Structure formats: structure tokens, C-alpha cells
């Protein structure tokens, strides 16, 4: 057993344990944080598989941004903790049974032997390039079209999020520095001429 | 190549050890003489009015999702920068279109007022 | 590594033009007042029409690929694209009045529909698993948001959540299957997957991949037992949105099924045709039987969709070009009928009145004989009564199933088609023989294009029935027959 393999087993075990924690712990915030640990361990596993860019992107995007979103969502919801547990434990036996049947079926079909498929040679290593360089090259040549479609999907995500969550409040008082700076004397001050209004016999 | 990440692994190990050690030490060595008043959340001398967990405003969600989208955009810029010199003009045009599409989205959210915090 | 060349841009020109128009519409919509939304409406339809023009005029006689096989343009893609663009334009015309009455006519309604359409155009031209997946996601993501557009409605929110969760599950299944196919064949390119199929090292791995891909496709089509989302989504979404997601995406789903199962996994057809035969029988049974119990017209049409998916799958079971041609004809016929069926509901709806219960159509004949006749035509076409469009579509897929040696399947389909006749005829009966709940003539929306186009669309179902010969010849030619 090489040192790499030891590292792999450690990170894989942590990932699996953390993933189990995600679906089993009581507190949703702890669940979200366990998911962070899962992502992080998976990033380490990917790193061991020489997928450097994906590993860094996973930490950057998922741990950095997606998990922040998850935490916000968890904190936005008012989940009653106890009833949730009850439904979960009610469906647990069925869920476990279905999962077990599927696992056995798939193992029987594919066969344990084909789990030891000889991996396809790492194209980056064959080309003598670093992982990120090879990935970037194919992204901007072979996968040019999917790359642009990804931009479209991001834009749709943006256009979908705004009408669903943006609510303009009425009656909000706020400062607009731009207008404050541009204000002139004429906008604020009006000098009018008027006759003195004093009634007879009354002192002003 | 992976060996270059060995310092990172060491760092992770040390961080994990320190983190766990501090928690364990605090739990083991710290005196625990809890009473109900001591454990109650501090609310300026009153009994606690409500749960400590408050619901977040949905506006945070919008900010977070906009952040993710542009974070992903930046993530795509990293490989682009690496191969920019090799691939040349096609890469420039490709990234130009990519950024253009997202800029249109940016104009959209700006004009809609999604960037305002009322 | 493929080098970029300008010929690729010519091949994808219609999509580029469409993307440019969407961008322009997005910007224009930001700077107009809500009362001027008609500008967005007209521009959107114009964009669809111009794109259709480009698709038509740039249609290559032969199969052309671009971006190293990522993007395929052939007559199948061209036909489906034209049908998608037409159906989407119809859905926009039918939906405007409905959305306006509910103050939901926002720019995003148009933008999301246009982006979804772009996704469909990419999907039907997919030559690679990645393009197929991304096109599908573009379509799906836009659809989820469209369903949730009415955010003050609880049932719309519920529908959107169900749609999103099950849609994400389906995408996951599809991706899982794709990864297994990649693992077995070592390529993502559909043409290369077909070439690699006969001598893969682990045929079982490929077969499991096929199972997951079939599940993913069945989810997107709405075939039983992966149909659970359909009634809730069709019912919960605003009718204008249902008009869209109930019609054009079925064409795209056909495209997806064809590209993945035939273009990519054609070598595995003995495996998947059995699965599709089971899905077809279940869809026909569940769709037709459950539709009988519905009192809500949108839900009834949703179950009717499920049964039509069953018919569509009949064209696939033989895995022959003739079968695909019949299935494509069916998809086009169904999309053009479904869009006007939901359009009728949108036509009758007013502010505060959804008109989506079957009882809301009671006595329609007394109140508006013309629209009762249009609705009756639609129902007869859906039921497959000769000589309407739907009849020929059913006839052709049945014939293809019999030719492929699935006589039992054709008999099952005919039995359930007769069962299905009951609930379509019930709507007709309600319109002609029941008394109206509200008296007086029908108050029709002032939206003249809506009334005219809807009438033409409804009557066209009759005309297209007579013109189905040339249309079917066209579909046959697309599959090289």
C-alpha cells in the first residue's frame, strides 16, 4: 500500500462519513457544514486522481459559494426539527431496501470484476501537459460550444432568480448620494415675495 | 506531481489536530458547573423572548445566487488565462462571447435593481 | 483536437441569430414601460419567425456537423426546429391575454420562454452527450422558473418545487447513465459511441448506462412510471406557461430520445426497445384510465399527454426509420394540438377565473358556437377521430408498431385509445348538451390575434388531417425513406 492509497482511503472515509452525517444529523446547519466537509474531502480525492483544476474549482465554487447559499437557505427556512425526523424514520426502511436492491442488481449486472476496469490513460499525461492546461485546451477547442452554452445557463439562472426573489418594498426611505451631490440651491429653496400678514390690532 | 501538495496535506493534518485538540482540551479541562440561568441566552436581563435562530431575509438568497454565478464565471477565467497564449485568437473570441453573454445578464440585474439593498 | 473554423459558424447561424435577438429583446425590455410590453411580445414573435427563416433557408440537404461533431444539422433537426419555433410562437400568442389579466406579463415570461426555445434548438441538434445535456438543462432551468413565475400562488410554487426536484433527479439519472456509457465506450461523441458499441469491453456496463438514460428520457417525456410530476405541473403552472411547456418541449423530448437512443445507442436497441415497450403500455393504461377521473381540464390534458407519450413510444419500439418518422409526425401533430387545447383554456380565462374545470365549459355551444366547434375539433383530434390530424398520427405509429412485429402492443394501444375516447367526448358532451352555468354570450378577450390565430390553429387540425400525406412524406424523407 502506497502512501497515496492511504491518503485516498482516509479522505474517502471522511467523505463517506460526512455524507452520512449530512442526511442524519438533527441540526440543518450542522448538516450543511458536514456537506462542506464532504466537498472538501472529495476535492482531496480528486486531487489524488490528478484532477487539480476540478479539485480547486470544487473548493472555490462549492465550498466558497454554493455552501454559503445553502446556509442562507437553511437559515431562511423555519424547519420544525422533530416532525421532520419522524417522517424520515418512517421512510427509512423502504429507502434502505430500495437502495440495497439497486446496489445488488447493479453489481450483479456489471459484475464486481468490471469494477477493476483498467483506467483510460490520462490524456493530459500522454500529451505532457499539466491537468489544467490540457483541460483548458480542450475547453477552448473541442468543447467550445458547450462552454458558450454554459454561459447561457448561468444567464438563465440569473434571469430566473431575479423575478422569483426580488421584491421591491414600498415606502422605504433611503439616501441617494448621486442625487444629494447634484442638488442645487434652486431645488431646495424657494424665495417668495408676499405681503406681511398682520391683522389690525394684533401684534406680530 | 501530487507530491507538490504534500505541504498542503501536512497543513491539513496540523489544522485538524489543533482543531480537535482544542475542543477536546476545553471539554476535558474546563470546569462545568452549569445552572439554568447560566445556560439561558442573554437577553438584556429579561427572560428570552424567542428562539435564538431567526429567519434570514430572502434578499440574502439573491445576493448569494448572484455571487455563485459570477464566481463560476471567474472559475472559467482561470484555465483561459493558462492557455491564452497557446490557443490565441479563438480563445480570446470565445471568452469574449462568454463574458458578453454574462454582461447582458449583469445589465439585466443592475437595471432590475437586484443590486440595491433597500 | 479540432481547430475552430468559420464553416461551423454558418452551420449554427440560426441559433446565433436567435441568441442575438434574445440579447436584444432582453435589453429592449429593460428600458420600456410595463404598459409597452407589447413591444417585447412582437419582438419575441419576430425573433422566432426570423430564426425559422434562417433554419429553413440554411437547411442542408445532407447531414452536417459542426464543432467537431458537437452540433448536428440534418433534416430531422430542421423539421423539429421549425415545429418548435412555430409552437412556441403560438404559445406566446395564446398566453399574452392570460398573463396580462393576472399582471404576470413580465419581460421574464418572454425571456425564459425564448431561452427554453434556444435550449430546445440545441437539444435537437445534439451530436454529443455534453451538448444534449446542456441543451436539456437550458430548457429545464427556464421551465422551472416559468412554472414558479406566479410567486403568490401556492399551487404554482408547489408545482415548481415538484418539477424542479423530479427534474433534477431525472437529470441526475441521465448524467449517471451518460457517465456509464462514457466509461464503457471511452467517448462522449454520439457517432463514436455507436461505432464503439459492438466491441465494448464491458457490455453490461453499457447496458446499465442505457437503463439510466432510458429512465432520464422517460422522466423528461413523462412516461409512466416517471410521470408523477406532469399533472401537478400542468395544473399548478399559469395556463399560459402550461401552453408552452405542454407543447414544444414534447418535440424536444422526442429529439432527445432520438439523438440518445438511436444516434448514440442504436447498437443497444434490443435492450431499450423492450424497456420502451413496457413504458408505452404503462403510459397508455395509466394516462387514459386516470384521465377519466379528472374534473380539472388541465389535469385531464396532463393525463392525456401521458397517454400520447405512450403512443409516441410505439414509434420507437421497432427501432426502424419508419417508426421514428411516424413518431416524429406524432410529436408534431401532438404539439400543434396540445398548444391550441391549452390555448382554449387561456382564451376562456379572465381575471379571477381560471376556466380550467371541465364544468367551466358547460353549455359553451349556447354561449359561443364557434369556439365550441373549435374545442370539439381539438378534442376529436386528441382522441384520434378521422379525418383529423390526430387520427393520422395515431394510425401511422400503430402501423409502424405492427410492421415492427409488435402487434400485441398495437392492440393494447387501440383498446386504450377507445377508453380515451370517453373523456374527450365528455368535454364535447358538456359543451353541447349541458346548460351553461353563466348565461349570455361568451365575453371574449379583446386580443384579436389570440382569437384569430387560435381559430385558425383549431381548424387547421382538420386541414392538416387532409394534408397529412405530404407531411408524412416529409417526415419519411427526414429519416431517409
Determine the mean pLDDT of chain B. Answer: 86
Task: Give the topology string of chain C: H per helix, E per strand.
Answer: HHHEEHHHHHHHHHHHHHHHHHH
Largest sheet of chain B: none
Could you describe the largest sheet of chain C, including whether it forms a barrel? 2 strands, antiparallel
In what range is the share of β-strand residues of chain C?
under 5%
Proportion of residues in extended strands of chain B: under 5%
How many domain regions of chain B? 1
Instruction: Determine the CATH topology of chain B.
Output: Methane Monooxygenase Hydroxylase, Chain G, domain 1
**Span of the ends, CA to CA of chain B:** 50 Å
Your description of this structure?
The complex is a heterotrimer of chains A (204), B (118) and C (481). Chain A has 9 helices and no strands. Chain A is mostly helical and 204 residues long. Chain A has 3 domains: 1-79, NADH-ubiquinone/plastoquinone oxidoreductase chain 6, subunit NuoJ (Four Helix Bundle (Hemerythrin (Met), subunit A)), CATH 1.20.120; 82-117; 123-162, no CATH class. In chain B, helix 3 runs antiparallel to helix 4 (89-112). Chain B is mainly α and 118 residues long. Chain B has one domain: NADH:ubiquinone/plastoquinone oxidoreductase, chain 3 (Methane Monooxygenase Hydroxylase, Chain G, domain 1), CATH 1.20.58. Chain B has helices at residues 6-29, 36-39, 59-87, 89-112. By secondary structure, chain C is mostly helical. Helix content of chain C is 75%, strand content 1%. Chain C is built from 21 helices and 2 strands. Chain C has helices at residues 6-11, 13-31, 38-57, 75-101, 107-124, 129-147, 154-185, 190-196, 203-221, 229-236, 239-245, 248-264, 269-292, 297-317, 321-348, 364-367, 369-383, 389-403, 407-433, 448-466, 468-478, and strands at 64-66, 71-73. Chain C has a two-stranded antiparallel sheet with strand order 1-2. In chain C, helix 4 (75-101) runs antiparallel to helix 5 (107-124), helix 12 (248-264) packs antiparallel against helix 15 and helix 14 runs antiparallel to helix 19 (407-433). The model of chain C has no long low-confidence stretch (mean pLDDT 92). The chains are: A mainly alpha (204), B mainly alpha (118), C mainly alpha (481). Chains in contact: A-B, A-C, B-C. At the A-B interface, helix 2, helix 3, helix 6 and helix 7 of A face helix 3 and helix 4 of B.
